[in-house]
Design brief:
Elements (H helix, E strand, L loop, with lengths): L1 E9 L2 E7 L4 E6 L5 H11 L15 E9 L5 H9 L8 E9 L4 E5 L2 E3 L1 H11 E4 L2 H5 L3 H12 L3 H47 L5 H13 L1 H16 L7 H16 L6 H27 L4 H21 L3 H67 L6 E12 L2 E10 L7 E2 H4 L2 H16 L6 E5 L7 H14 L4 E5 L3 H4 L4 E10 L2 E9 L1 H13 L4 H15 L1
Helix pairs in contact: 2-3, 5-12, 6-12, 7-11, 8-10, 9-10, 11-12, 12-14, 14-15, 17-18
Length: 556
């Protein structure tokens, strides 16, 4: 349950901390006092989108935090916490969100940073909000189907259908791509065959053009390379001024070694000279061999230049790089093969699609059967609750009819109602009034949550468009829900507020030209006066007596 809600610098609220208890809590107040602000702050905490416009004037950020306590951890919450690698702290979970003037927000759960998406996922298992906007969403066929699927309690059929749908869509996509490839191949077959043959003839390799360019550079500088290497060999080996470079190194090595016999500090120098002499000897021999094997071949030069020219033509036609030519060859070859073997592969895919479509139809039938079964049960349960909510003659049914195949099945779902005997049942979008929609929404919530784990249910003006005995029936249904849930009702009706275990009043006042909304719990005579205000707008003695009577009768 939600134990504490702290709001700071949000809309008209400067700083408020709301303590909530078990059972049924009513939030009341004059129109425009800020009751919707409380709901907006709670939505922000549960991961709703928000902008910097909600920040109170004069501040650069707004923060909402909440503490939830669980004596027993619902399985759905436990699964979500494990998925997010979180744990309760003595049964508590603390959630916080701050939004800044630039529209960016930060979220935390148990003191660790989280994304808004994670916060929204956690919010789904912490609080269920039924607001006035849900009235219109009930008109949507997709929403009605979602409600029905939620009531079925078994998602296996839907998951199996969705898996089959995805497989069929993948096959259809592959068939479409291959069909395009086959058609392209047929149109371009002659050109593609020529291109493949032309490229294959050269047996090109990645990077070959760069390798040829380097070889041509070496051949082009043949004379310069030969002269420089020849001079290096001569200087290393031939004697100049009576001794060669190699000979000088050997002599220096010998003399230093002789000296080291008398001074061991020269031993390392002698060793290094010896290494230099060996290395120079190796360099000399390598250069000599290189020089011996150097040769100029006009034929080799012509071959390299010819191949380079051919590669350049290929790159100009299919490039611009040699790697692009190689890729083009692979793609062209694939298109050719598609033209040759594509018809066979299309036939294979067509058979797979036929089998997949058959499987999808079977899954759709199983899903439809499950939905129709759930529709009968849910319709009867909603009808029962509606009759207890002042619609004694109402009939409510959920129709499941055949429709087009789609990602969620091949069923069209419609919520139909007949509020007056003798009339035909019609979709709620065509005949239901605002008050009837409020009661349908409450009935659906009551039925769908009946077998659910304990949690927090929030109703925002669920009493819209009703009054009198119907309002009393709605209040009694809310009281029934409090047996398994924490229920919070934002209401304008005294008959519903009087049934609450706790009542909080939102008020707005102006100080120094600034508007402030505040919320406080009311008890005793304060609560009597608030109920009186809700009854007639005044706190005269007669109205106060009526308020006391209403509160006393609601306790019974």
């Amino acid at each position: 349950m939600l134990e504490r809600l702290a709001i700071r610098h949000y809309a008209l609220i400067e700083d408020a901390e709301i303590s909530l208890a078990d059972g049924l809590s009513a939030i009341t107040g004059e129109t425009g006092a800020g009751k919707s602000i409380i709901l907006g702050a709670l939505g922000l905490l549960l991961g709703d989108k928000a902008s910097g416009e909600v920040i109170r004037a004069g501040h650069d950020s707004a923060t909402v935090s909440g503490t939830f306590h669980f004596d027993h951890v619902p399985q759905m919450l436990q699964d979500t916490l494990e998925e997010m690698d979180l744990e309760l702290d003595d049964g508590d979970i603390v959630v916080s969100r701050t939004i800044r003037s630039n529209g960016r927000s930060t979220c935390s759960v148990q003191g660790t940073a989280r994304t808004r998406a994670e916060l929204a996922k956690l919010g789904l298992v912490l609080v269920d909000i039924s607001a006035q906007r849900d009235h219109q969403s009930l008109f949507l066929a997709t929403k009605q189907r979602e409600v029905l699927d939620s009531a079925s309690g078994d998602e296996k059929e839907l998951e199996a259908y969705q898996s089959a749908w995805k497989e069929l869509e993948t096959l259809r996509s592959s068939y479409g791509e291959l069909s395009t490839l086959v058609a392209t191949s047929k149109r371009e077959q002659e050109y593609l065959a020529f291109a493949v043959a032309e490229i294959e003839k050269m047996r090109i390799r990645s990077g070959e053009d760069e390798q040829i360019a380097r070889q041509l550079e070496v051949i082009g500088a043949y004379e310069q390379i030969h002269d420089h290497v020849e001079e290096a060999v001569r200087r290393l080996h031939e004697e100049m001024d009576g001794i060669s470079t190699l000979g000088g190194l050997r002599a220096a090595t010998k003399e230093t070694a002789e000296a080291s016999r008398s001074d061991e500090r020269l031993v390392s120098l002698a060793s290094r000279l010896e290494s230099c002499a060996i290395e120079c000897q190796d360099i000399y021999e390598t250069l000599r061999d290189y020089l011996d094997h150097m040769s100029f071949s006009q034929e080799k030069l012509d071959q390299l230049q010819s191949r380079q020219s051919y590669l350049k033509r290929l790159m100009k036609k299919y490039g611009p790089t040699l790697d692009d030519v190689i890729r083009y060859h692979a793609e062209a070859k694939a298109k050719l093969e598609a033209g040759i073997h594509g018809e066979e592969r299309l036939a294979e895919l067509s058979e797979k699609i036929r089998q997949s479509r058959k499987e999808l139809q079977e899954k759709a039938l199983a899903l439809s059967t499950a939905r129709k079964k759930a529709a009968v049960r849910l319709g009867k349960e909603v009808e029962r609750v509606l009759q207890g909510l002042g619609m004694a003659q109402a009939t409510f049914a959920i129709r499941v009819t055949n429709g087009e195949y789609g990602p969620s099945g091949a069923d069209e779902v419609s919520f139909d109602i007949c509020a007056n005997p003798g009339l035909e049942s019609r979709p709620i979008s065509q005949v239901a009034s605002g008050g009837e929609l409020s009661r349908i929404l409450l009935a659906l919530t009551a039925v769908l949550k009946a077998d659910d784990v304990p949690g927090t249910l929030v109703f925002d003006e669920i009493d819209s468009g009703i009054g009198g005995a119907v309002a009393v029936a709605v209040g009694q249904e809310l009281k029934r829900l409090k047996q398994s849930h924490q229920v919070i009702a934002i209401t304008h009706l005294a008959s519903i507020a009087a049934m609450a275990d706790n009542q909080l009043v939102v008020s707005k006042n102006v100080e120094k030209g600034l508007s402030f909304s505040s919320i406080r719990p009311v008890e005793g005579e304060d609560r009597v006066r608030e109920i009186a205000r809700m009854l007639s707008g005044d706190t005269g003695e007669v109205t106060l007596m009526h308020a006391r009577s209403l509160l006393q009768s609601s306790v019974l």
